[in-house]
């Protein structure tokens, strides 16, 4: 039976490789996902560490020349014809000097569209400079009255960051590693649909089932063929992410992102059970559909579930012992622990892989039973 299994697997692989368009579509996600995230990080880093001038509209600058000079020292300048101001307005009241002399609060208005993310860092710089200037005025007032400025600082908080470069990498780059798991689900999707609903529409599935081959070997070979592409897509994304991020200046964010060959090898091994589970799940959904297009629609909806689970875990950082043993979440835990530099829970990794493979075998049995029905075989 091993010969039968490998014969069917080789046949499915040849059919998938001949379809260059599907092959490129399967691999493109693993390739362009990390590249898009790398570009996004480069833009983010440029925006965060940028020391460019911030050009703002200043109404009433003549009432507070000292404040304007302080803002200019922080590279916050008024707009000009040559350098137009951004949509940030700073309104200084006419009573600025009078209120300052009487030690009264001075209402300074910062007007901007706070829903615009592109100008968020510029707004933060303006508000931070105003707070700094206000604090310096308060200190000068206390000094003139013979009072130490320490009276307004009863607590001196010494912030000591114990985060390692690995933990910072996990916090920032966790979303990037999500593409590894998503590549597993998307890379083998076209192969799974074509070897199930596609063969049924081409009337080759009936001929294949008529051969003296056990149905469960047929299902296992089809799932393994799709899983081969799924695992290849995940491993390709895993190998490309460190290479792509070599060109991203993560050190400016205090992040050191590096993965050893041993870590990549362990992650690759963990991805294999997930690839098998994803492929047999896609075969199950495809055989439940009546046509090729319907299978694509159903799988797109089903794929949303693991993707949503991955993003939910990434944003909420929710932790529970059972998540270390479930499909998708257990593999996500291994990825997160690897980039954070945390020791892997070997028993949890083994349990997660075993449960994933067990569910895969259950789905193989379900699909095998489905193919014994004429309604499934002929799409009735």
From TrEMBL:
Subcellular location as annotated: Membrane
Molecular function per GO: ABC-type transporter activity
Membrane topology field: Multi-pass membrane protein
Listed InterPro entries: ABC2_TM
One Gene Ontology term, aspect cellular component: membrane
One Pfam family, short name: ABC2_membrane_3
Membrane-spanning ranges: 21-45, 169-193, 225-245, 265-285, 297-316, 346-367
Domain called ABC-2 type transporter transmembrane: residue spans: 31-365
Record key words, sorted: Membrane, Transmembrane, Transmembrane helix
Record protein name field: ABC transporter permease
Higher taxonomy: Bacteria, Pseudomonadati, Pseudomonadota, Gammaproteobacteria, Alteromonadales
């Amino acid at each position: 039976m091993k010969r039968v299994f490998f014969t069917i697997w080789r046949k499915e692989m040849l059919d998938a490789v001949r379809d260059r368009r599907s092959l490129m579509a399967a691999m493109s996600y693993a390739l362009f996902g990390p590249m898009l995230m790398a570009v996004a990080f480069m833009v983010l880093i440029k925006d965060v560490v940028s020391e460019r001038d911030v050009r703002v509209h200043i109404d009433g600058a003549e009432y507070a020349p000292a404040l304007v000079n302080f803002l200019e020292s922080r590279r916050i300048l008024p707009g000009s014809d040559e350098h137009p101001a951004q949509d940030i307005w700073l309104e200084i009241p006419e009573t600025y000097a009078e209120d300052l002399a009487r030690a009264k609060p001075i209402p300074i208005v910062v007007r901007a569209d706070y829903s615009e993310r592109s100008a968020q860092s510029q707004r933060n710089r303006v508000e931070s400079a105003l707070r700094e200037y206000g604090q310096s005025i308060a200190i000068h007032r206390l000094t003139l009255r013979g009072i130490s400025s320490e009276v307004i600082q009863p607590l001196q908080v010494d912030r000591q960051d114990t985060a390692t470069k690995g933990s910072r990498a996990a916090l920032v780059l966790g979303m990037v590693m999500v593409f590894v798991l998503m590549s597993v689900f998307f890379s083998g999707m076209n192969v799974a649909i074509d070897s199930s609903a596609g063969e049924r529409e081409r009337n080759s599935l009936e001929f294949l089932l008529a051969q003296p081959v056990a149905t469960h070997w047929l299902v296992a070979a089809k799932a393994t063929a799709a899983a081969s592409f799924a695992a290849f897509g995940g491993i390709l994304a895993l190998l490309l992410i460190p290479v792509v991020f070599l060109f991203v200046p993560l050190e400016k964010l205090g992040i050191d992102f590096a993965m050893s060959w041993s870590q990549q090898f362990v992650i690759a091994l963990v991805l294999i059970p997930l690839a098998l589970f994803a492929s047999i799940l896609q075969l199950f959904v495809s055989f439940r559909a009546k046509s090729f297009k319907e299978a694509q629609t159903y799988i797109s909806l089903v794929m949303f579930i693991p993707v949503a689970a991955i993003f939910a875990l990434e944003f909420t950082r929710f932790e529970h012992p059972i998540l270390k043993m479930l499909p998708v979440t257990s593999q996500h835990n291994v990825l997160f622990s690897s980039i954070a530099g945390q020791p892997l829970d070997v028993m949890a990794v083994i349990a997660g892989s075993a449960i994933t493979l067990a569910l895969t075998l259950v789905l193989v049995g379900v699909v095998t039973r489905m193919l014994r029905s004429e309604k499934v075989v002929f799409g009735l």
